[in-house]
């Protein structure tokens, strides 16, 4: 499906939770590098770039963004095998700045 359609559900969920409790009490967790159960996205960077732009624009007061680093999958640490240059989350950091970002996994 289109990027807009693939990001519709998370955008609607965030919007509903923000309406219920207020944006200062809502965070969002994403894992753009995840390939859990072999479900890795072929177009993760454009998809998550669009999602981040939409969240930052439509919900500018979100408390934080929590992003899973691509060097972990579940309990497995991929840092020993390495990750590709295109698999990093630097694009998320750049898009989300200067807002609060929590980076988890592989530390």
From TrEMBL:
<dbReference type="InterPro" id="IPR013785">
    <property type="entry name" value="Aldolase_TIM"/>
</dbReference>
<dbReference type="GO" id="GO:0010181">
    <property type="term" value="F:FMN binding"/>
</dbReference>
<dbReference type="GO" id="GO:0016491">
    <property type="term" value="F:oxidoreductase activity"/>
</dbReference>
<dbReference type="Pfam" id="PF00724">
    <property type="entry name" value="Oxidored_FMN"/>
</dbReference>
<dbReference type="InterPro" id="IPR045247">
    <property type="entry name" value="Oye-like"/>
</dbReference>
<dbReference type="InterPro" id="IPR001155">
    <property type="entry name" value="OxRdtase_FMN_N"/>
</dbReference>
<protein>
    <recommendedName>
        <fullName>NADH:flavin oxidoreductase/NADH oxidase N-terminal domain-containing protein</fullName>
    </recommendedName>
</protein>
<feature type="domain" description="NADH:flavin oxidoreductase/NADH oxidase N-terminal">
    <location>
        <begin position="1"/>
        <end position="107"/>
    </location>
</feature>
């Amino acid at each position: 499906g289109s990027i807009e359609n693939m990001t519709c559900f998370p955008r609607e969920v965030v919007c509903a939770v923000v309406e219920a409790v207020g944006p200062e009490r809502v965070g969002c967790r994403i894992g753009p590098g995840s390939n859990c159960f072999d479900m890795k996205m072929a177009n993760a960077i454009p998809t998550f770039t669009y999602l981040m732009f939409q969240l930052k624009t439509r919900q500018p007061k979100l408390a934080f963004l929590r992003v899973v680093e691509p060097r972990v999958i579940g309990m497995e640490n991929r840092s020993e095998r390495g990750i590709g240059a295109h698999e990093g989350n630097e694009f998320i950091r750049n898009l989300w700045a200067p807002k609060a970002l929590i980076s988890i996994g592989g530390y």
